[in-house]
Amino acid sequence: MGNAVPDPIVTGLAQALAARLETVVTVMGEVIVREIDLYRNADVKLDDLHASLRHNVSLTIAHLVSGEALDVTAPVAIGRLRAAQGVPLHDVLRAYRVGFANFWDQLLAEARHSGTRAESALLDAASRIWDIADSYSTAMASAYRDTLAERMLETDRRRSALVAALVDGPPPGSDTAWEIAHLLGFPYRGTFVLVMAEVLAVGEPPLPGLDAKLRAIEIGSAWRAQPGHEVGVLTCPERGLADRALDAVRASATGRVGVSPAYEQLEHTPRALRYAQVGLESLPEGLPGVRQLDDTPLTEMVMTNLETTRRAVNRILGGLLSLPEDDRTTLLATARAWLDAHGSAADAAPALYCHPNTVRYRMHRIEEYLRGPLHDPKIVAELTMALDAVGTFPALLSHAGTGTVGSQRSAG
Fold first, then answer.
1. Confidence check: pLDDT of 409 > 70
2. How far is 238 from 218, CA to CA, in rounded Å?
3. 3-class SS of residue 184
């Protein structure tokens, strides 16, 4: 509000209130405490409330007396303070409305005490006086929101740095995993899952709406944005919630997402990152999808050296990998079903929707490409390893049949 010519009568009323400022502030405080639970429950201390009221009333009176531009430093300071205190904005705005309404009542009572002329002058100035209330509320709310945004940004940066420390491992002399857990509000021991999500476009979240879904099932999270992807650590109050967290990730994914196996200590986060990274990279490019790897010795071995594993798979499966894709897929599926059925063609047949003799025929074909007969436990172990590897990492088949392969036992 700009400069205005003060009305002498209104100026006199304002000065009368200034003469008993502490009484005015006390009455306003009593009304606010009586009508707003948060202030009644001492979430905002009475001395704190009185100080803010005193500042606001003093500036309001100064404006009414001098007519100079309205000073909004008080509501700006209060907005920042209440945001820092975590007082809900709607409660602060209501306190402003209740407090200013009482200030008006006290001003009106003073005018009525002074006579009809003073009352008439005050009513003529009512619009200007209520504009002060509006200007104060607007300035306070704007400062509150700015402070909240700043605090959220600072919190995000802090949490991002803490996630980075978890992922990379705390450097010497820095916070330990236990201290990082405390700062994030995470337990040190619990059920955790690491998520790596591909960012398809700058500024676009790779998992829109995920935070709300996670909060709904009481799963906490902390995130770190990196070029090309975001990494998040999820903490589940119960181990069973890890599956629900994975469902939420699937429902939110816009690109490729790798998910680690569940782990129990935050200091294992660097290892979990590797699982999630390989899970993401094993998905086909250009298609949204979510992949969670199992925590098995085989998976760890493959992650350690994917190219070595590829060569091993080629050696074990031999020329089978050079067959036409449909034929190869059928034989590999048959081998998986046969192994799941502990080598029983009769038990594998229902899963494959075929006759047991068909299973036996296909397994005989597969045996021709292996490095020995299927009654040899060593050959069965090799076949199991190779099938688990290509099942976990389909990319191992991208160069099928290349590299060193075992020779066929017969041309069959």
1. no
2. 10
3. helix
